[in-house]
C-alpha cells in the first residue's frame, strides 16, 4: 500500500516550457487535490477533483490545468511555465464526500520540487 | 471565508521542554480541526484531529483540544525530542462542492536542540 505517489520528485524548467506532474493513489479515494507550498504562505489549493470525471478550481488556479484520468490518477499541467510557479507541489487524496458521509482527512504525497528559470 | 491563524515561528526549544503552538480559526459552522506535521524533505502527515467541540485529539505525545468558545486548537506536548523538529500546520475542513476542503495556517517551524 503506497498511499499517494508523485512523479517526478524534482524538476527544473525554463520559462515557457510545459510539463505534467503525475499523482496516483491506491486507497480508492474519491477526492484528489493539488496544492502548492511557498515559504511563509502555507499550502494553497490549486485544483481539486471531488470524484472521477469532475474538477474544480481552488484558490490559485491560474496557469494550471488538471486532468482526473481515472479514480486513481490526477495530473497537473503547466502549459507555459513562469518563474512565479517555482514551488513545491503536493498532491493529496481523501475519501471525503460530504454527501456520502465520508471522512475529511487528506493524505499527502511526498511532493514535487519545481524550479522555473 | 474560513481562515486559520497560527503563531509564527520559528520556535526553538531545548530537548524535554514544553511545547505550545497556538492556533485560532474563523469559520461558519463547526468544522473539523487538524494538525499536520511536515518533516524535512517530506510531505504532510496527519498528526491529530478533532471533529467537534471539546474533543481532544492526541498522537505521539501531542495533544490539542477543540475549544469552540475561544475558537482555538492549540497544539501541546509535555516533553519535546529532537525528532519532533518539523513544520506544524493547523488546518480546518469545510464542506464544499461535493468534497471536503482544507484551509491551512502558514505553518510553524519547530527546532529542538539537544
Count of alpha and pi helical runs of chain B: 0
Strand content of chain A: over 45%
Question: What characteristic shape of chain A results from the CA principal axes?
Answer: globular
Structural class of chain B: mainly beta
Can you write the helix and strand succession of chain A as a string?
Answer: EEEEEEEEEEE
Description:
The complex is a heterodimer of chains A (about 120) and B (about 110). Chain A is an all-beta fold and about 120 residues long. In chain A, about 0% of the residues lie in helices and about 50% in strands. Chain A has no helices and eleven strands. Chain A has strands spanning about 5, 10-15, 20-25, 30-40, 40-50, 55, 65-70, 75-80, 85-95, 105-110, 110-115. Chain B is mainly beta. In chain B, the strands form three sheets. In chain B, strands 2, 5, 6, 10, 11 and 12 form a six-stranded mixed β-sheet that branches. In chain B, a hairpin with a 5-residue loop joins strand 5 and strand 6 (about 45-50). The termini of chain B are far apart. The interface of A and B includes residues 42, 56, 96 and 98 of A.
Amino acid at each position: 500500500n503506497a498511499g499517494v505517489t508523485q512523479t517526478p520528485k524534482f524538476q527544473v524548467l525554463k520559462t515557457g516550457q510545459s510539463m505534467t506532474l503525475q499523482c496516483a493513489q491506491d486507497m480508492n479515494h474519491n477526492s484528489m487535490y493539488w496544492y502548492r507550498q511557498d515559504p511563509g504562505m502555507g499550502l494553497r489549493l490549486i485544483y481539486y477533483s471531488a470524484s472521477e470525471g469532475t474538477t474544480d478550481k481552488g484558490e490559485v488556479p491560474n496557469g494550471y490545468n488538471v486532468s482526473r484520468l481515472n479514480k486513481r490518477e490526477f495530473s497537473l499541467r503547466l502549459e507555459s511555465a513562469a518563474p512565479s510557479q517555482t514551488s513545491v507541489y503536493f498532491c493529496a487524496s481523501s475519501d471525503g464526500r460530504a454527501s456520502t458521509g465520508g471522512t475529511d482527512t487528506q493524505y499527502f504525497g511526498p511532493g514535487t520540487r519545481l524550479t522555473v528559470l | 471565508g474560513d481562515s486559520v491563524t497560527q503563531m509564527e515561528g520559528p520556535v526553538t526549544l531545548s530537548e524535554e521542554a514544553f511545547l505550545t503552538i497556538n492556533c485560532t480559526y474563523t469559520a461558519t459552522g463547526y468544522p473539523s480541526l487538524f494538525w499536520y506535521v511536515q518533516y524535512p524533505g517530506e510531505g504532510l502527515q496527519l498528526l491529530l484531529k478533532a471533529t467537534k467541540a471539546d474533543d481532544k485529539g492526541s498522537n505521539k505525545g501531542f495533544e490539542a483540544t477543540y475549544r469552540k468558545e475561544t475558537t482555538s486548537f492549540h497544539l501541546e506536548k509535555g516533553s519535546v525530542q529532537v525528532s519532533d523538529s518539523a513544520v506544524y500546520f493547523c488546518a480546518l475542513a469545510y464542506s464544499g462542492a461535493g468534497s471536503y476542503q482544507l484551509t491551512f495556517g502558514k505553518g510553524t517551524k519547530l527546532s529542538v536542540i539537544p
